[in-house]
Every structure is written in structure tokens, then in C-alpha cells.
Amino acid sequence: MSRVPAFSRAQLGILILLGAVLFLLYAWRGNLVWTPSTPAASVANPVYVEIVGEVPRPGVYSFPTPPTLLELSQKAGGPKPRTDSQVRLASGSRVEVTPAGAYRPRGRMSGPRLISLGLPVDVNTATAEDLEALPGIGPVMARRWVQYRQAHGPFKTLDELREISGLGEQKLARLKPHIMVSPPSAPTGQ
Q1: What pLDDT shows up at residue 117?
Q2: What 3-state DSSP class applies to 63?
Q3: 39 or 117: which carries more pLDDT confidence?
Q4: Percent of the chain with pLDDT over 90
């Protein structure tokens, strides 16, 4: 018959303490005792709108949903819009406030600003400088895009960009996440 080893009180205390630590680690890793705190609500796809001109705080503002002119004016500290302030602004929009307090849509933000915010550049309204902000597009290629668009009209699909000299399949594939084609009837606001 085997004898059960006898432990001193100190040894039993250490065994119990180690057992408790192991149980707590197991419970913590398995989320058995404590529920993880819910992360702060984050905006999955924020809407960015730029406001410039006669406002106390011009700049780019982030919204969880497309803002109205009134919401934009409140963030920038500008005068209350006199026009329909319930019109929703698309992400990447640029709005100018005149000295008289009128709100004027000015199309989209500049290409470098759009790219830095993770928003696509519209190949139908972008200037050569806007297009240069795209990865791998220099001044020569940007001018080719604008010249092609002027000669053939607005692009209907991104695949039409393949017609531009020097723009191959691989480069176009890398650019697609950074560019878009506006609908043909969409006003440019300029």
C-alpha cells in the first residue's frame, strides 16, 4: 500500500495558492469569469467633408453618416445655412462659405487630401495635380489621363483607363482601390 505524502501547512498553502493562480489564468484566458469590455463604438466608414472660407474652424470633419449643411456648419462654427440645410453631403465633398455667409459646393477635395483620407479620386473630375497623388502616377502620366479625357469625354468605367498609353493591367489593378468613376449625370459642382 502506498502512503499519501504528508504536507506541512506552508506546503499546502503554496499548493492552494498555485492552484488559485492557475484557475484565475484559465478563467481569464477563457473569459469564464470576466467578460471583455466592449470596445468603444467606432465608425467603420466615416464620411469626410471639407469646409473652407469664412468659418472660424475651416478644415476636414469626420461624420458617422453623410452630414447636412447644418451639421457641417455647427462643427466648423459657421453661420447657419440659408439654403436647404437638410441636403446630405457625400464623403470627399468640399464646401466653401463666402464672405456673405452663403454655402457653395465646390466638388471634391484635392487628390492628395482624398488619398490621405483613404477616399478614391474621381478620374472624371480630377486635375493633373490630383492624379499625381495616386501611387505610381507622375506628372507625365497624369497629363496623359487629362488629355485622354478631354479628347474622348468622361470615362464610363475604370477599365477604359487601359486605353491610356503607359497604363498597363498591373498598374491599373494597383490603382483601382484609389480611383472611381463618377456617374455621367453627377454634377461636378465646379
Answers
A1: 92
A2: strand
A3: 117
A4: 50
Q: What is the Cα–Cα distance from 183 to 88, expressed in whole angstroms?
A: 17
- What is d(CA 22, CA 17) in angstroms, rounded to the nearest whole number? 9
Q: What residues have CB less than 8 Å from 79, skipping those under 6 apart?
A: 73, 97, 101
pLDDT band at 63 (very low <50, low <70, confident <90, very high): very high
Residue with the three cell numbers 465608425: 43
Model pTM greater than 0.85? Answer: no
Q: Name the grid cell of 68.
A: 447636412
Task: Please state the length of the chain.
Answer: 190
Q: How far is CA 118 from CA 26, 41, 177, 178, in A?
A: 41, 20, 9, 8
CATH architecture, domain 110-190: Orthogonal Bundle (1.10)
Question: Within its chain, how far is the Cα of 33 from the centroid?
Answer: 37
Mean pLDDT of the chain: 85
Domain locations in the chain as residue ranges: 44-109, 110-190
Query: Coil, helix or strand for 62?
Result: strand
**Cell digits for 32?**
469564464
Is 94 within 8 Å of 50 (Cβ atoms)? yes
Amino acid at 175: L
